[in-house]
Specification:
Belongs to the bacterial PQQ dehydrogenase family. Keywords: Oxidoreductase, Signal. It comes from Pseudooceanicola batsensis (strain ATCC BAA-863 / DSM 15984 / KCTC 12145 / HTCC2597) (Oceanicola batsensis). With 721 residues, this protein is mainly β. The strands form 11 sheets. A 5-stranded mixed sheet has the order 1-34-35-36-37, with no helix packed on it. Strands 2-40-39-38 form a 4-stranded antiparallel sheet, with no helix packed on it. It has a 4-stranded antiparallel sheet with strand order 3-4-5-6, with no helix packed on it.
Length: 721
């Protein structure tokens, strides 16, 4: 069903930016700092002293081997060395990547309504000018969501050019190009967004009193003045912090930042994408916090050596290699002083027997850290011993749930959890799958149990042979034969080598980086999702022909393959081959029946489905890559999320049909749509200028989704009276 190739992996006005030593201290601040030699880098976490609570008791830790245990949280009291600041409000502005500080993607604006949305007209189109050239051809997936602050839109392009434009006219104010080279592109050139920070102790007109901060593909943190785009000279080296510090050998494309940083109590928190499937000896998944004014390292959270490497590793050493990383967006909790990290899997996704106990404990978990110290507060694991690449890709959402400060966590498997954000304890029922198959490859490693949400899941029933589908009878026969050739035992079928195995949901099933939107007034969650399997096979080492990225001359063809399509997994006994979005080799059509993606409304109080419908038409899809131009809602793969408004509208692009839609939140009916000039794989925003509401999305395309690549930023509004 080309071109829907589903080969896709994927401020705030804050406070006290001064160094920690210059801040108000806690009662225990006179205690001497812990010596680095108390827990050497890479130490077994069971032999490392547990963090102490204010009562002096060791915090309760999750068992190192969680294969058959229930999800639990380890808890310590957060530090209060940096005080909370008032947050910018969503409405007139869109000041955070997730809209508001809670990442709800909900706007209180109501000028555009279900009754008048059909009158929307395009107000302006801005072109970033950032289009692929040379070796970047075929590697662009910008996924960009601008911020709107004051009179300006603030954004990054695919190659990290920082841009400010007038929010009412689209006229460019300034741009700053940090000069990211093409060889830094990992799977794709992506920059999902930026963050802003206003220094509380600077004069409003001082240079960089408010600064725009982004992470780049070549692993830098860059800060520029919001008014001029000039680099903030007080931040790192002339506005730049090198994130390769203490990571190891600099291999372009292996370690990159694609998500906006989170800023909490004056600390800029960032992880990085580590290119999957290359080698067990991969760059560390360390998450670090930097002072928002000076760019100095405030702390590092290396999950395998949290105390030893808190201030960076000892001289001559690096952060623990190969650990799970946070490639997606964290959520800042200014009130509690926490930052919530959705972690991915280990660097070798599909084989786990060589992993450390620390990797087993933290992979595919939501981790809450004290953002002022980098100490773990709690963590909640959604997959035990993950060998399916079920990274947590969504940004979690803060909300008040039945009187408790809570956090809503969607997963790639389709499960949606609501947790107490102070403790990590589930507030909605969590069940347990038992007696799961362990397979022949590593039966002693695969977990026989897995947690599932009993409150709500986007996951559909297991596949059956009759579900094998084809555009023609020959297609259907071919796909059914492939089904019977494969190993498939339902959800969490373990990897296999002698036969392929069907993974359903696939690694981009459920919720991904587009995240969910939450209408907190109506109590409705809007979740778009993918519903398509992968067809995988572990490749014995003597059959692996691909080279890991650090052994390629210039990153090889790293941008042309989906994650796991032909990855060497060096250090493991197997490489991995993945048919992402399992398709017939005869007509290029999927082997599973449509819909391949949908959008659902969920009652926030009860977890019940209010409506569910396919997302995406067949207009750009057909056999042999020929667009059918048919308007039928077949439900296509989709990437990118939605925004919901107080008037009851859901705005979303995401699907591969290049349409931008307005949907009635009460009924699921499409009330308006328009054709985009390129793929709309990005999260939209809405904002107001001089009393006029605008809605905006970037149409920049996505090479893995096979949508046309562009450079457009497009805004619509109702006709002026």
């Amino acid at each position: 069903m080309s071109p829907i190739l589903f080969r896709l992996a994927l401020t705030a006005t804050l406070a006290a930016p001064l160094p920690l030593l210059a801040q108000e201290t806690t009662p225990d601040s006179d205690a001497p700092p812990q010596q680095q030699d108390e827990a050497p880098a890479g130490a077994d976490p069971e032999t490392t002293a547990a963090p102490q609570s204010d009562a002096g008791e060791a915090a309760t830790a999750e068992p190192a081997d969680t294969a058959d245990s229930e999800p639990v949280a380890s808890v310590v009291e957060p530090s209060q060395t940096r005080v909370a600041a008032e947050q910018r409000q969503v409405g007139v502005d869109w000041p955070f990547y997730g809209g508001d500080a809670q990442a709800t993607r909900y706007s209180p604006l109501d000028q555009i309504t279900p009754e008048n949305v059909s009158q929307l007209e395009e107000v302006f189109t801005y072109h970033t000018g950032d289009l692929p050239e040379g070796t970047a051809e075929g590697k662009y997936s910008p996924e960009t969501t601008p911020l709107k602050v004051g009179d300006d839109l603030l954004m990054c392009s695919a190659m990290n050019i920082l841009i400010s434009v007038d929010a009412a006219t689209g006229e460019e104010n300034w741009r700053f190009d940090p000069g990211v080279p093409n060889d830094a592109i990992p799977y794709g050139a992506s920059c999902r967004g930026v963050a802003i920070y206003t220094a509380p102790d600077m004069a409003d007109d001082a240079p960089c009193a408010t600064r725009v901060i982004q992470g780049t593909l070549d692993a830098k943190l860059v800060a520029v003045d919001v008014a001029t785009g000039a680099p903030c000279e007080d931040f790192g080296e002339n506005g730049t912090v090198d994130l390769w510090q203490d990571i190891g050998a600099r291999v372009p494309g292996w370690y990159a930042v694609t998500a906006p940083p989170a800023v909490v109590r004056g600390v800029v928190v960032t992880g990085a994408q580590v290119k999957d499937g290359q080698a067990e000896d991969a760059p560390s998944g360390v998450v670090r916090g930097y002072d928002a004014i000076t760019g100095e390292l405030a702390w590092a959270w290396d999950l395998a050596a949290p105390e030893a490497n808190r201030d960076g590793p000892p001289e001559g050493e690096v952060y623990t290699r190969g650990t799970p990383n946070m490639w997606t967006a964290a959520t800042a909790d200014e009130e509690l002083g926490h930052v919530y990290l959705p972690l991915g899997n280990s660097s070798v996704d599909y084989y786990g027997s060589n992993r450390s106990e620390a990797e087993n404990e933290f992979a595919t978990s939501l981790v809450a850290l004290d953002a002022t110290t980098g100490e773990e507060v709690w963590h909640f694991q959604t997959v035990r011993r993950d060998v399916w690449d079920y990274d947590l890709g969504s940004q979690a959402t803060l909300l008040d749930w039945q009187g408790t400060p809570a956090i809503l966590l969607p997963s790639k498997q389709g499960d949606i959890y609501i947790l107490d954000r102070e403790t990590g304890e589930p507030l909605t029922p969590v069940g347990e799958l038992t007696d799961l198959p362990t397979g022949d490859i590593e039966p002693d490693y695969i977990s026989t149990t897995q947690p599932i949400s009993e409150w709500h899941t986007l996951r559909k029933p297991p596949l059956e042979p009759k579900d094998a589908w084809g555009f023609t009878p020959i297609d259907q026969l071919w796909c059914r034969i492939q089904f019977h050739r494969a190993n498939y035992q339902g959800f969490f079928t373990p990897p296999s080598s002698e036969r392929p195995w069907i993974q359903y949901p696939g690694y981009n099933g459920g919720s991904d980086w587009g995240s969910v939107a939450v209408d907190t007034e109506r109590g409705i969650i809007i979740a778009n999702y993918n519903d398509i399997p992968n067809y995988n096979r572990l490749v014995p080492r003597d059959e692996v022909t691909s080279q890991p990225i650090h052994k390629q001359e210039s990153g090889g063809d790293s941008g042309t393959n989906a994650e796991g399509a032909a990855d060497p997994q060096e250090g493991a006994p197997y490489g991995i081959s993945v048919n992402a979005g399992w398709r017939s080799s005869l007509t290029d059509m999927p082997c599973s029946a449509p819909p391949y993606g949908g959008i659902r409304a969920i009652d926030l109080e009860t977890g019940e489905t209010l409506w569910d419908r396919p997302l995406g038409t067949a207009r750009r899809n057909g056999p042999f890559g020929i667009p059918s131009m048919l308007p039928f809602d077949i439900g296509t793969p989709n990437n990118g999320g939605s925004v919901v408004t107080a008037s009851g509208l859901v705005f979303i692009a995401a699907a591969t049909d290049n349409l931008f839609r307005a949907i009635d939140i009460e009924t699921g009916e499409t009330l308006w749509s328009t054709v985009l000039p390129a793929g709309g794989q990005a999260n939209p925003i809405t904002y107001e200028v001089d009393g006029r509401q605008y809605v905006m999305v970037t149409a920049m395309g996505h090479h893995f989704m096979e949508t046309p690549v562009g450079d457009e930023v497009i805004a619509w509004a109702l006709p002026e009276e």
